């Protein structure tokens, strides 16, 4: 079993949206996926209240036991939705994760917060990648400056960025209001397509060798991780 922690210190970045849709897409793709809702706000549990996907309401202190129990029960991928704070709860999720997805909008404040989270991953020598969410779609084939600027800034800082960028799409909101992931809500839609691509990239990373982020003062920067 592999464990994916979806983290961000910013509320509203899209942790719950990404966690729910990723778990649903993994399940659609044939994985035995379980979603662990470790945020006391219980957004994921609320979103999937009537869904057949297994959702476990949990807390940071119970994560280690949950990972063990999920492994024993035959789960393939455990996706953890986390709160924005306190840091101790985020650290607990990072420690049980095989990979951390750091969700950030392409804004200055989100990126600044994401860089601090990446620093935390480096200190813990944990593997992680930034997933840009709520990005504007390209217009006439041209990527918005805010998106290219964000990716450039992150790569300049030696931070791994997922090869899939999630866009602002109404489908993400509509699907959850019906208790569904986007891959079930509109399987041929663009939100479903990008979510499946993200799920594939995450699975690919989990199947391959996963490198921990080295502390920033290490000579070798994690350039090999510039895409998932
Ligand atoms: N890619 C997206 N497109 C449109 N709306 C989004 C997207 N990602 C998140 N949202 C919306 O933004 C809000 C915050 O998302 P949420 O997943 O609850 O963030 P977090 O869990 O990080 O606090 C929600 O209303 C959600 O529907
Ligand atoms: Mg949330």
Fold and architecture overview:
Strands 3-2-4-1-5-6 form a six-stranded parallel sheet, with helices on both faces. The C terminus is likely disordered. It is α/β, with parallel strands linked by helices. The protein has a single domain, classed as Rossmann fold (3-Layer(aba) Sandwich). The longest helix has 18 residues. The chain starts with a strand and ends in a 21-residue tail after the last helix. It contains nine helices and six strands; from the N terminus they run βαβαβαβαβαβαααα. Helix 1 crosses helix 9. It is globular. The structure holds adenosine-5'-diphosphate and magnesium ion. Magnesium ion (MG) binds next to helix 1.
Rg of Cα set: 16 Å
Count of separate DSSP helical elements: 9
Helix content: 40-55%
CATH topology-level name: Rossmann fold
Q: Strand share of the residues?
A: 5-15%
Compounds present? adenosine-5'-diphosphate, magnesium ion
For this structure, what is the CATH class? Alpha Beta
Strand tally: 6
State the domain count: 1
- Structural class, judged by helices and strands? alpha/beta
Order of helices and strands: EHEHEHEHEHEHHHH
Low-confidence stretches: 217-228
CATH architecture: 3-Layer(aba) Sandwich
Summarize this structure as a short list of keywords or feature phrases.
alpha/beta, 9 helices, 6 strands, binds adenosine-5'-diphosphate
């Amino acid at each position: 079993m592999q464990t994916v922690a979806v983290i961000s210190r910013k509320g509203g970045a899209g942790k719950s949206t990404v966690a729910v849709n990723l778990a649903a897409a993994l399940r659609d793709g044939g994985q035995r996926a379980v979603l662990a809702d470790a945020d006391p706000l219980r957004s994921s549990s609320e979103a999937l209240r009537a869904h057949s996907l297994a959702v476990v309401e949990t807390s940071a202190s119970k994560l280690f036991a949950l990972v063990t129990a999920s492994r024993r029960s035959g789960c393939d991928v455990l996706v953890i939705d986390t709160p924005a704070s306190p840091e101790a709860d985020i650290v607990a999720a990072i420690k049980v994760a095989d990979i951390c997805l750091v969700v950030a909008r392409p804004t200055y404040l989100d990126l600044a917060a994401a860089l601090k989270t990446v620093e935390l991953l480096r200190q813990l020598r944990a593997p992680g990648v930034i997933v840009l969410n709520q990005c504007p779609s390209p217009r006439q084939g041209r990527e918005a400056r805010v998106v290219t600027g964000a990716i450039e800034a992150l790569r300049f800082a030696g931070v791994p960025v997922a090869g899939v960028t999630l866009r602002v799409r109404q489908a993400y909101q509509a699907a959850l209001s019906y208790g569904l992931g986007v891959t079930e809500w509109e399987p041929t839609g663009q939100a479903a397509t990008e979510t499946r691509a993200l799920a594939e990239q995450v699975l690919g990373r989990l199947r391959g060798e996963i490198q921990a982020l080295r502390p920033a003062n290490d000579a070798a920067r994690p350039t090999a991780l510039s895409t998932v």
